[in-house]
TrEMBL record:
Signal peptide region: 1-19
Protein name listed in UniProt: Glutamate receptor ionotropic, delta-2 isoform X3
GO MF, any single term: ligand-gated monoatomic ion channel activity
GO cellular component: plasma membrane
Membrane topology: Multi-pass membrane protein
GO annotation (BP), single: detection of stimulus involved in sensory perception
Family: Belongs to the glutamate-gated ion channel (TC 1.A.10.1) family.
Boundaries of every Ionotropic receptor 75a N-terminal domain copy: 91-222
Positions of transmembrane segments: 343-364, 415-439
Residue intervals of the Ionotropic glutamate receptor C-terminal domain: 342-455
One Pfam assignment: Lig_chan
Amino acid sequence: MGSLIIMWILLTVLTLSASHNIDSMIGSFITDMSSSLLVSSSFTAFFCADAVNTAEFSRQISRNYLLHRIASFNDSELIDIDETIDHNHYFIVDFDCEEGVEFLRKANTRGQFVAPAKWIILRDSRVNDGGFSQLMMEINDELVSLLSNFDIFPDSEVVVSQRLNQTTMELSALYRPSSGQSLIIEDLGTWSHEDGLCLCNYDQSSRRRVNLQGIVLNTSLVMTDLNTLNHLTDYQDKLIDAVTKASYMWILYLSERMNATFNFTVERTWGYKDEDGNWNGMIGLLDRGEINIGGTATFMISQRIGVVDYVQLYTPTGSRFLFRRPPLSYISNIFTLPFARSVWIAIVVFLVISFGFLCITMKWEWQNLKMIPMECRLGGDLERKPTITDNLLVLLGAAFQQGFYCEPRTISTRIVVLMMLLIALSLYAAYTANIVALLQSTADSIKTLDDLMNSPLKIGIFDIVYNRYYFGAFEDPVRKEFYERLVKDKPAVWMPLEEGIQRVREGLFAFHVDLGFGYQMMQETFEEVEKCGIEEIDYLKVYDPLLVIEKQSPFREIIRVGILMLEEKSIR
């Protein structure tokens, strides 16, 4: 009989330990958390409650219009939570369940604590009498000990909710500044059934956790000239590695704000994918997790979007083709430009009409003249009946101001000829004046890559690593044709800055260069009159360089907020 009682007690204890019911107070707490602290519209809960209790909890949550899913730890489909993490979704785990510890370990192994994943870990710390207080303390220590080795970093949202009594919950947030640091516990506040959520600090985690406790973060600076190491802050050689020098100052600002130390390394290239699909340079270091943040801003291109994360700290710069507008006579036939197309058509119509009137009046004049005896005629009179070609010669002589062989005698013929002479004189004056102006004009018709490709201008490219990569990387028809025709297998187009700007100064030459480099060199070497008429054509068509960090960096939000503050305070 005694053995049966012992077996019954053991079964009861095992049943109670395997099942942990969720009451209505937990439902109210989760509803408030979804609308305030975590601001989410759905969640997945992992409980070990029985079916009846689970159904009651689900009905309570549904009445508050929250999407939810309640899963068992033994559910083979839901225990693997490698689903797409939505910032509007979070997870709830009942730590009092036997499977809770192992479940959290698996979630950590799969990297499920990184942003934007959010977690609530429920703990029942109610003490029925003094005999259980030490047990509860040991269980809480067990939770902290478990999480102290997890990848819970500053971007993680892990809230531990400990139930103190029937109506009160104590809230704590846990994170580690880095993998080598100890766990930090933040006191968020309390929740009670009567007062709701009462927070100690309403700041976002990116503001609360800005102090990284002096951890060391790795970064890399891209330098095309190693002498830049000696001139990062003294404003010497400003044209050399200008983007690196600007980014370096911003990195120092972030270092002070985050209370972190940056360990700098140097790379000679920003980073591009090789034939084996591996990345080199600074991007390769970020891809392999060897550095945390890129110390030099880089262009945003499609191939890098899935490899690194971009942060909206733009470095105002860019590369363009720079050239002086060429003389108009090199681009167009200036002899057709003085008049618009409609004017030329009007001139032709006028000549046709004048020719018709001239034929009629000349025929009339011959009819009057042939009745006069030859000995009574004057010099310049018609000697025979005018033909169409005769009238055409008169027309051309008047139009081109070359004169003609006969003199009009009748009033009608004189009116026609005088009208042609006056109009020809006016057109000639306007035409020659426009020709003189056009000879002194420059062409403004080179606006696109296609215009440049089909112009008489020769091209050159500043010989720097990213230009050699980008010029052959584009696949759109215009830029691909431009590269094939003017750049590929032509080593002469690659040249240093000084040579390229000097050839731009000489004219009929377009040089692709960073705008900062190009305009600074022009300011130092060009005469004032030579600075007029500089045109730009964008070949790369990319955004200004941005700061880059490793994919899913735990410091992303802290860095982003720091950069926003930097921009708001105009430290640029």
